[in-house]
Amino acid sequence: MTTNNNPKYSRDSFSISFDQSMLQVSYLSSLLRILQATLREVGQTGGKTRQRFEQKPYPVLMMTISSVENSLGVEMLFADSSNSSILSKFSRQVFEAFLDRFSKYISDLPQPSLFGGAAPKSSKVSPDKPLSVRMDQIHRELRRAGKVTIHVGERSIRIEGESMEIK
């Protein structure tokens, strides 16, 4: 883990921007554990990325943390565990697949009713599927952060409490 003050995110990276400069360690630890497990699971089940997780040495998830004014940024990339070289194309494939699945998960969530209460849960989100459970965990953790944006390449998802925007 490194710390820098220049949040220039690579188009191949997975980045999260928090609109606050300080976070609880327990919150960040929980979010990172869930993200790591989910990204690995997405990679292991993806057509283009599965093979890389089936051969040793397994890719490792690396991160950089940056702080600018009142925001905190976390940037992640996969690297080769034997020599720490960045696996840009592989990273981009895993992160894009994650963003596709997370966007679909968010789109399938029940919309609030006209009177403010949540509508019944969608039957499309299956609690018995491990990846659906992980997406639910990530969604809950990100909502706890207040205002947070996930970036992968030119795409992003902004979450602020119950409000979400997918670009």
SSE topology sketch:
Layout: E1 2-4, E2 14-18, H1 25-45, H2 50-54, E3 59-68, E4 71-80, H3 88-108, H4 130-144, E5 147-152, E6 155-160, E7 163-166
Parallel strand pairs: 1-3
Antiparallel strand pairs: 2-4, 2-5, 3-4, 5-6, 6-7
Helix pairs in contact: 1-3, 1-4, 3-4
Overview of the structural elements:
With 167 residues, the protein is α+β, with helices and mostly antiparallel strands. It has 4 helices and 7 strands; from the N terminus they run ββααββααβββ. It has a 7-stranded mixed β-sheet with strand order 1-3-4-2-5-6-7, with helices on one face. Strand 6 and strand 7 form a beta hairpin. Helix 1 crosses helix 3. The longest helix has 21 residues.
Q: Could you state the order of secondary-structure elements as H and E?
A: EEHHEEHHEEE
Number of domains: 1
- What's the rounded overall pLDDT mean? 82
How would a textbook summarize the main sheet? 7 strands, mixed
The 3D shape can be described as globular
Short overview:
The chain is of the alpha+beta class and 167 residues long. The chain is 37% helix and 26% strand.
Question: Which labels suit this protein?
Answer:
single chain; disordered N terminus; alpha+beta
